[in-house]
Amino acid sequence: MPEGDTVWRTANSLRDALEGKVLTRCDVRVPRYATVDLSGEVVDEVVSRGKHLLIRVGDHSIHTHLKMEGAWHIYAPDSRWRRPAHQARIVLATEDRVAVGFSLGITEILRRDDEESAVGHLGPDLLGPDWDAGAAIENLRAAGEQPIGLALTDQRNLAGLGNVYRNEVCFLRGVHPYTPASEVTDLPAMVTLAHRMIHADKNNSIRRRPWVYGRAGQRCRRCGTVIEGHDLGRQEIFFCTYCQPPRAD
User: Fold this and answer.
1) CATH number, domain with residue 50
2) Any catalytic annotation for residue 41?
3) Per-residue pLDDT tens digits for 91-146
4) Of the residues 45, 51, 116, 177, which is catalytic?
5) Of 68, 96, 119, which marks where a domain is finished?
6) Per the confidence metrics, is the pTM higher than 0.90?
7) Which residue in the list 2, 124, 147, 177 is annotated as catalytic?
8) Segments forming the whole domain that contains residue 38
């Protein structure tokens, strides 16, 4: 699933293509919203909130989430799409650009004053202007017995981290991902690192070489121990048992 930095870059692309322009086409290919047509309205702004995107048009907000396979593409008018048309969930066009949302996990049209129903549950946004490290730390601490490897990707605690970052942050701080969140002694350092890493990557679509993510069965780049991979939540977690020793029971 795309992480917050990917969504942030997507918002930037959509902003460049749509913001301040009049929609000449609005084709929502989701049955519930198939009759919605925002053509003739101006796109006021495009914002990201964690892994969510909000395209604000007049009194409405187009809320989308990429989930696992979604993507937004920007095209010149009459250009050939790089993905099949049947995957398109929404098409937004201006005089000089066409934005197509393919295979989006969520596509819904909200009243703008109802945005909180979609994103109000999110914790502090790592890439947002109102980032609050203190609140993120307290949210993680309040996660109690939940493994820190899960707590870091619970968007209610802090918004924007996904599987790649949770693996790398745990490794770089020497924290075993199954450690209960409330027992992690350096939560402030973990949050600071997560914030620094995602900010460093937000303008770069090519991420740095991973320390542990996706490297099960390979040698740790730091100590040479074989990296382990286990299921944690709905995704695999990777760690080095030497660099990230489990807690002593």
Assistant:
1) 3.20.190.10
2) no
3) 999 999 999 999 999 999 999 999 999 999 999 999 999 999 999 999 999 999 99
4) 51
5) 119
6) yes
7) 2
8) 4-119
